[in-house]
Amino acid sequence: MPKPLGPPERVGWVERSEPHRSSPRQSPPPTRPPILSSAAVGLSLLLWAACRPSLAAATAPELPVARPEQAGMDPGKLARIDQAVAEALQAKRMPGCVVAIGRRGKLAMLRAYGHRQVLPEPVAMTADTVFDLASLTKPIATATSVMILVERGKLRLDDPVARHLGEFAPHGKDRITIADLLTHQGGLIADNSLKDYLDGPSKAWERICQLEPSAAPGTKFIYSDVGFIVLGELVRKVSGRSLAEFAREHVFGPLAMTETGFLPGEGLRRRAAPAEKRDKADTRWICGEVHDPRAYRLGGVAGHAGLFSTANDLALYAQMMLGEGQYAGVRVLRAETVAEMTKARQVPGGLRGLGWDVRTGYSSNRGGSFSPRAFGHGGFTGTSLWIDPGLDLFVIFLSNRLHPDGKGVVNPLAGRIGALAADSLADKQPVPPEAKPDKPPVPPRVLTGIDVLRRDGFRVLAGRKVGLITNHTGIGRDGTTTARLLHQAPGVALAALFSPEHGFQGKLDTSHVPDVRDPETGLAVVSLYGKTRRPTAEMLRGLDTLVFDVQDIGARFYTYVSTMGYAMQVAAEHKLRFVVLDRPNPIGGVEVAGPVLDAGRESFVGFHRLPLRHGMTAGELARMFNDELHLKLDLHVVRIEGWRRSELFDATGLAWINPSPNMRSLTEAILYPGIGLLETTNLSVGRGTATPFEVVGAPWLDGRRLAEKLHRAGLAGVRFEPVEFTPDSSVFANKRCSGVRLALVDRRTFEPVRTGITIACLLRADYPTAWEAKKYDRLLGNAKALEALLAGKSAGDVEAGWQPDLKEFLKRRAKYLLYE
């Protein structure tokens, strides 16, 4: 039986003796007493220092505070952060925050805003507030500890985890390496059930070891807390010390980060920022104990969450990383280890470091003006740390956005603060490559429409008054938003913003999306998925140009191109220029499949007569809409450079950003044209699970039987696994479903539409009354195909019926294609 993953004793703290600004006690501290007395903790620390005199003698001083000018920063520009935070406080996106910005080895800014708590009574935020760092635990405690063990020859990055944790091997996990877990490519699910943790850490570890991977190692990016729980246990097993003890001894202690660690003591809990209440029945706020429910059940120490710290302490860590592993004569990591840890690695849909984010769908808290060498991470509680060696800059943002009701939103603010910090550099010249070792490799050069427009000086929009239709996917290659770029572009007047379904940040999954305000430009963002789905004459008043920059998925019923089509019609009516900033079709521009939408069936989920998988970019579709709908529109498409039709998104070197809440990976986008069809019927397609569109099931379905029949169907490039799952939202919320998981094994031969139609035909044959087949037509949009399905015909016969229309579509689309 392994030891518990996290010991319940208080470890990792040496509280400073100097006084802090006093503040009222905001809530009673957790009542769970520490196993070790304060005397015992003090004795253990003295013994530790005696055993390691070199570390004890070389403890690092606090980072000196300097005027912004001394750090090469413009104080006037840096002051814009005050306004950005004030807007977030006014909008009640958080109770308060602490911002720390460092450069040239100095703190150019350390400032507290708002309140540490608002209930049961207001308490002002202070710069020494202690925060629950949540997932910042992953890089700062866990990944750093792992890399120290790699340095010392105890581990190798390509080691299978099971070489050190033999009990982890079942169900094919013996092939998962340490590097796979550090980059979230181990194929492990994001989180296992909370029920797995109710019997204590030992039982929880046993259940983690029995988990089945949801993907083969290295084939998919799944941000996984489970993977970092495993890494925390790996540190314990290999070092013989808990993660809390190891990180204290080898990272926090040497750097004099005396307010950083797991399970804070009473003095630090009094300065901790509270979160929400743990459940409705609880009478007290979570304060000074970990918010994450799994880390809480593991005793407060886990590889994915549980670390607490202050802005001052994090500044020491950040400066150590900027110093290539050392600060003030104390070396924590070798320079080559830091370079390896922070090097940008291509993962499906983005770039990651070892434990760090570089640019993925989780990078919304990344400053848009950072250099390509920036790396960082965020935490669920409202924390983020980004470090940019290219600009010799770090930005720390700490909030308790979950207080008091769990509804705060701060990632856009954190990203904006990072951008403002980078923009304030008076000497903004990236550090030359020769000054730093191992510059991350440059990914393949694909420039999207906004990149080309920017490079060419925004000539297409010169002198124009512009309305921009965009969302969070509208970004340049360096992460700067299209809205920001047009707002700052010389000779361009950005006067209006519009957002499609899912909203400006792409996070809403509701039937009505409200208007918001863009904090970067200060402009109101009018929702085109609210009271109207078309811009009105009033919304367009004073404009002479509409610009569209949104990432599509490549399926007919994905609604972003419908928003584009409606806007094109309105632009034609009002004689406006329409500019499409083109982006790659993420699932490729070669394959075309499925029935063509019947004439007269056009709708928001089927704007034009297209097949299910059309193989076109938004710019190419705009050319088709303009011509075939006789719009006579002044249309300009700013073409992509460097993209070939045969390439899927992960070949472009562009960062994958989840275009909508349930489109979380390229794999799910590939599956969507076939599996998404099924969700209008009484089936769950995985919404409300960690892997939408990768599972199909229902309470009335026999998953094992369906998997067997699908295997006999001989579908290429995919494997079907019987599975049971319980969605926590959407169709069959909180109900146990039986079904199949689709595991892609060869994307080149996989045919999503054929697979989806085959599933539908098998369901019709085996469940003629239980499956509500007529509802399948809502997205299918083809009466002939539905008739064949209801008649019980085979998938091949159903497909044969739509081939003439599909061949005609291929002829129609040929003259609108822009790329080879």
Overview of the structural elements:
This protein has 820 residues and is an alpha+beta fold. 29% of the residues lie in helices and 14% in strands. It is built from 24 helices and 24 strands. The strands form six sheets. It has a seven-stranded mixed beta sheet, with helices on both faces. A six-stranded antiparallel beta sheet has the order 3-2-1-14-13-12, sandwiched between helices. The chain has a three-stranded antiparallel beta sheet with strand order 4-6-5. The protein is globular.
The gist of it:
This protein has 820 residues and is an alpha+beta fold. It contains 24 helices and 24 strands. The protein is 29% helix and 14% strand.
Layout of helices and strands, plus pairs?
Layout: H1 38-51, H2 53-57, H3 75-78, H4 80-90, E1 96-103, E2 106-117, E3 123-124, E4 131-132, H5 137-151, H6 178-182, H7 201-209, H8 225-239, H9 243-252, E5 261-262, H10 266-269, H11 293-297, E6 307-309, H12 311-322, E7 326-327, E8 330-331, H13 335-342, E9 345-347, E10 350-352, E11 357-359, E12 375-379, E13 383-388, E14 393-399, H14 411-423, H15 449-455, E15 465-470, H16 482-488, E16 493-499, E17 516-517, E18 524-527, E19 545-549, H17 560-573, E20 577-581, H18 618-628, E21 634-638, H19 666-675, E22 695-698, H20 703-712, E23 718-725, E24 737-744, H21 752-766, H22 777-780, H23 783-790, H24 795-814
Parallel strand pairs: 15-16, 15-19, 16-18, 19-20, 20-21
Antiparallel strand pairs: 1-2, 1-14, 2-3, 4-6, 5-6, 7-8, 9-10, 10-11, 12-13, 13-14, 17-18, 22-24, 23-24
